[in-house]
């Protein structure tokens, strides 16, 4: 493999820092000016993201003109200890470029939407401050030129995510959900830290170029360790098995947050991390297999649970878990599939953001209710939301010519192309996942917009204002067209990063996969439509065990409780007992001993000058005597 | 051409200038007492003292880099006054610390007319005593302080035992008197002065006896000569041992090491608080400056002989000071015992000899700033006219005077040696140096002692913040710019030396070599 090096940034590319600075300044101004900026703060938030988007576009086109398609920008030294130098440097290459466009582009639309969505909320300025903070951190994550910078962004988005999930912190559920997300991510982040430590230990650097160039010299064990540790971190941030439980709870945050952070951008950071570290992951077949298994397992897991949920946002959240599973599957397959993972990520960014914003629009109309059993027949009342939601629905289930078709089918094809029985297993899982996706998304769509009205008495649905529908329409158009546009152009654009894609031929041909997928999708969607065309029960009925298991998140919570919560509680009470009896006992005993000695010895301090003089005299005698003893010896 | 120059005597006047300035200012202060009208004496005395000390400091700065003796005859050095790195650094430290101490002495807002009376020997609570208490405070304290400070500056550069003895008495006598000048609680103040005087005289006798023994052994009182004699003297070594022992007793008395420490709590408590501050900061610098010089220059060749007994004393001092401090209920006594424990830590630096000279000096400077500020705060917290020194009275101070409580907290944390304060950097660098000198055992005892000592300091912090104030809680008097400057300077130095100690560590590093070692 060729030596990896990054050319220094020139021209507009040397403004990469401004990309981060714009939203960061926005966040700082909004937080520091306090109530004074309540009136115009949200527009500042929108403007900084708009500016960042414009700059990202300019940098994108400037990058396209470069020969080696990369720009490295050194800012300053963060840390210099011994032989280890950690620089604050930014790397703008095709991979970070598409992420920048996604983050600022979709981010801009969602910011605009949020101006309308958050209008009734007194904390709107604070919301936009955190929102800008998130964008700044996310841009650091994807622009960082070494693992340390990525980690700073990684933790930054974690913080912003925490702040925004529990934005309505007065709601106990929101506060708990924020804490859960934060803690789960901390556990996974230990993987990231350990991976960095391993890199420093083995290679003495955390620079992308340094790590990738040195990766070939690593022992199998070390590369396996780094790969698995990074995978753990990625699973945490992206809500993949076994860290999936925090993501659905994160829907307690305001809907624009769910759209931007917990669907379009932050949760895809794990995919970014693996794609960025493709050199390490490609080294070791075992790591790749691990990624593939995580992806396949999670995509089924999410899809199954998604079928049993009745909360519009939670269904979408589980579908996010499932779709990111597809992306993990793709980047785990390696080779040309890296690029497939990225285009599915981009397409997903559009249609899932659109779906979430659509669900927000529906909630707006329905007094913030989220129970799809009490919706129905909304298509007449809110045609724009309906149309855009439909575009998103068709895109996610992957029917021609919507974007999912162009991005999901190749992944399924490549999964089938894996060697031996693994190909059949993984490909089968991906195909089954597609059928399930079609089923639960159709169920969601039909129960929300079609069938009889099952509204509660006090709701009066209405279409949302233009500031919310315009972004919806734009994202809907993206869901329609983006797939076809990206299917060939993006893999080509990413070639400098991942290398020349090569055609894989496996168990099934492209045509066979396309036909099979289309058939199962149509079947799944048809079944969903048929079963739920007349609505559903307003309260859940007793059901067979698979449904009950899916309703209970397939036991994810129970596992957490049994495996982590109960032992932790035990350990906590044991340490309290230990602290109270043993440690405190020893400490108190020691303190009493010292105090007693002190009181007893202080009797010597009589206050009489004669006894003080005696003390000096005896001291002198002892000193002389001691010196004599030394002499005699 | 005068006679001295004819005899080939050369005098480094610039090198002597710091001491000359201080002594001249001290005599000038006496003249001020006699000539300037009473109303204006305070202003004149304070300005005179501060300007003189600042000038002395400037003179020390100009002397930096010198490495020789102040007197030479026909090119041959006479070692009575030695101008070398440690001597100059300690002189500079003394000048700065005593400027701060003088400002504290000059505080007049917290008690009307100041904390001092003019005559120490008037029978307490007699009619004459009551009359002098009603008067505005005495201004004789300033020349007295200057004499003491001049003595200290001489003590740290004295290169022979005789000069050192003169300096020792010069610094001690004014201090005995100053201790007895407290305006409140006259009786206890007089008691303190008398105790300090009697025991000080006792210790001086040891000094003279030890000096005589060493002269008998070495045939000289010059420190370098004594060191040389330790190698090649034909006299019985018995003289050396008795001499070392007696000398050590006298100097450890001034340094307040166990078992020569017993005067410390009584005197610290009885003396007027500003004088206590002067003793805790400046006398400690002088005493350890002298100890460092005597042991590094004069007794290095017999190190093996005294190493064990000094180690025992250091251990006793560290543990004793800390253990006694645990049960103290009076803030001044607490600080007195803490000063004893700190003397123990500093003794580690003496025992480690050349490895730790610089770090010991850093410790002295850092501790000096912190402890002066601590006593300054003590003088601000008052029950009516008297200082509220009982710790129970400090409960809940954080609620009523958060500013003062924050200052006390910072100082206590520094004394306890927590990071980001000078207490931590000082202890850390001193213990590190001691480890390099293979004094692991002493360092372990030092750390244990610090841990014990942290308890009483933190108890004060807990009292300040977590206890409810008493209904008749003491008031914190707003200090005049005088004491205000003292507190501010102490706290700033404490934090500065904790956060960025580099510049001072560099200085002490360069100034850590004695002449003739």
Characterise the protein shown here:
Chain B: NDH-1 is composed of 14 different subunits. Subunits NuoA, H, J, K, L, M, N constitute the membrane sector of the complex. Chain B: Pfam families: Proton_antipo_M (PF00361). The complex is a heterodimer of chains A (633) and B (517). Among the domains of chain A are: 295-551, no CATH class; 561-632, no CATH class. Chain A is 72% helix and 3% strand. Chain A has 24 helices and 2 strands. Chain A has helices spanning 16-33, 41-64, 94-117, 124-143, 147-165, 172-203, 208-215, 220-238, 246-249, 255-264, 269-276, 278-283, 285-307, 312-333, 337-365, 383-397, 403-416, 420-449, 466-493, 495-498, 510-532, 545-551, 556-601, 609-632; strands at residues 71-81, 84-92. In chain A, helix 3 packs antiparallel against helix 19. Chain A is globular, with a radius of gyration of 30 Å. Chain B has one domain. In chain B, a hairpin with a 2-residue loop joins strand 4 (381-383) and strand 5. At the A-B interface, helix 23 and helix 24 of A face helix 8, helix 10, helix 11 and helix 13 of B.
Straight-line N-to-C gap of chain A = 75 Å
- How many β-strand stretches of chain A? 2
- What is the beta-strand fraction of chain B? under 5%
Secondary-structure element series of chain B: HEHHEEHHHHHHHHHHHHEEHHHHEHH
Q: Can you tell me the residue ranges of chain A where pLDDT is under 50 for at least 5 consecutive residues?
A: none
Q: Which consecutive residue ranges of chain B, at least 5 long each, have pLDDT under 50? A: none
Give the SSE string of chain A. Answer: HHEEHHHHHHHHHHHHHHHHHHHHHH
* Order of adjacent strands in the largest pleated sheet of chain A: 1-2
End-to-end Cα distance of chain B, whole Å, is: 35 Å
- 3D shape of chain B: globular
Structural category of chain B is mainly alpha
